[in-house]
Structure formats: C-alpha cells, structure tokens
Amino acid sequence: MSLYGKSFLKLLDLTPGEITDLLNLAALLKEKKRNRVPHRLCECMNVALIFEKTSTRTRCAFEVAAADLGMHSTYLDPKASQMGKKESIPDTARVLGRMYDGLEYRGFGQEIVEALAAFSRVPVWNGLTNEFHPTQILADFLTIREHFGELRGRKLVYLGDARYNMGNSLLVGCAKMGLRFVTCAPGTYFQSPQLRKTAHEISRDTGAELSWETDPVKACRGADILYTDVWVSMGEPEEVWKERIPLLLPYQVNARLMETAGSACRFMHCLPAFHDLGTEIGRQIHETYGISSMEVTHEVFESEQSIVFDEAENRMHTIKAVMAATLCQE
C-alpha cells in the first residue's frame, strides 16, 4: 500500500486501487477483531481527534480503532481547542504535529482540514467537512461489498439534498469505483457543475455510469441500493426546514420506492436518521409540520432490507484501515 505518511482528505486524492487496498485492509482488520486476534500495529503512537462538530459514530469509531491499533487518543471537542479563535489553524497544526503522530478533523470547511495537513507534517484524516465525508464512503463501500460481493456495476441511488458532503462524496466514490450512480433530487439540489464535470472525467477511465434525475420512481427502478441522508445538516439554521421539507418529501425513501427498486434492493443511511418521533428534533418537526418521519419512513428503516447498522459498524473498521495504512510502514 502506498499511503504511508499521507493524509486522507477526500476520495479525489486516491486512485481506485488505493481505495480497494483500504477496503481489503478493513476487511482483514474486521476479521481479526471478530476473532479477537490482536492487531496493535501502531503501538505507542498518539492521535488527536479534533471535533468542531460532534458525532456519536465518528468519535467512537476513531477512539475504538485507535485503541485496537495500540494508540492513545485525545478528544478535543468544540470548547477544548483554541484553533481558529486564539490560535491560527497553521499554528495549531504545527503544535499538534509535534506532539501527535496523526490528527483527525471533523468540522466545517474543507480548507481547514487541508490546512491542518499542509502545516502539521503528520497524516491528517477527514472525519467530515461541509464538502466531503470520505471515511463514510469507505464504510458504505465495505458494506456494499459484503452484501453484493462487488462494487462495479451496482446501481446506487442517492435521494435528497445532494449539494453537500454526502452527495459529493458518493458521486466521487462511485465514479472512482465504477458504480452506476444516480443523484435523485430537485434540480436545484444537485452537486456543483464543476464536481459533476470532474466525476464525468473520472468515469471515462473507470466505466462508471453517472446520471441525474428529478423523478424518484424513474430513478429507483432496478436499484441495488437506495441511499439517503438528513435534509438539514448540523449547524444550519432551523428556518431551513420550512424550505426543504415540502421540496424533499417526494424524495423520502418509503415502501413504494423500495418496491419500485425490487426485493433485492437494500437501504442505506449514514445516520442519524429521522425515521420516527424518538428524537427531540423529530418531535419538534412533527409538532410544526405534522409528519412523523422525514428522509426515510420507520417501516423501511426497520425492515430486513435496511443495512444501516452494518454500515455504522463498518465506520470503525474502515477508519482503522485508514489510520493503519497512513501510520504504519508494514
């Protein structure tokens, strides 16, 4: 593997071969963990986990993965660092780079994680930015391989708002790995023209088929995977719900769309999901707009076709692979 000493910032930076290597390593490490075979490949190393946006899965995945690899991790929540407030991002990166062997960043603009990588001189891993979420895509692809045997040629339909990190990253990942990828959204909610152009250029070499559709029924016919995400991202104002709910309700993943795709289709979601009234936000939306689920119905979320918790577990195994590949020479 050729990733030793490198950062993991976005899938655009990796070749299809490197992505495949990471997936293979993740599968190997997953097998070792399930069989309780020690794999402390990064013994005595230390990593810092910088979270400007909190997360259950990303934090737990990085902390458990680091421990399994023999590393100690330091969690820096939004109040535990002066980065960008009393200390510049380059200065923070240079300080942390002298204390830690690797840095994770989860937060806002892609330019922040890129700056950390440029100044820290140690591998930096993107746990999520506004623009990209590459560790999630690795977990998604490992899950698809486990259920379908291969990635190439599988039809994945993403429904909802595709302008941000998940729509962007799935587009790039599917282009790199030769999938049939359909973005299904209102016309104004597609990825940027520049990223679409870049993805098309990638697809010429990989055989990926990329398309954009506004009709959910047409998009979902023959799909292997229906994928969705929350309609409003962390940090966006509450007023956004008023605009997006009417626009995106036709793109809700429900029993009708799953039936359109077929019984072999699987449902995926990067979580958390608003599929019932078990959350504070879910109850607030119900009181205001009268709906009991948003991007996916409870029926689909809890169905046998749903593989969201396989996907969530695989965050840990693929993140572990990224850290091992970038920190370990062997």
Explained architecture:
With 330 residues, the chain is an alpha/beta fold. The chain is 46% helix and 13% strand. The strands form two sheets. The protein has a five-stranded parallel sheet. A four-stranded parallel sheet has the order 2-1-3-4, with helices on both faces. The radius of gyration is 19 Å and the shape is globular. It starts with 15 loop residues before the first helix and ends with a helix. The relative contact order is 0.15.
Q: How big is the Rg?
A: 19 Å
Total E-strand runs: 9
Written as H for each helix and E for each strand, in order along the chain, the element string is HEHEHEHEHEHEHEHEHHEHHH
Percentage beta strand: 5-15%
**Low-confidence blocks of residues:** none
Please, what is the average pLDDT?
96
> How would you write the strand order of the largest sheet?
7-6-5-8-9
The percent of residues in helical segments reads 40-55%
* Tally of alpha and pi helices: 13
Give the overall form: globular
First and last CA, distance: 9 Å
Main beta-sheet annotation: 5 strands, parallel
Derived structural class:
alpha/beta
Keywords:
single chain, 330 residues, alpha/beta, five-stranded parallel sheet, four-stranded parallel sheet, 13 helices, 9 strands
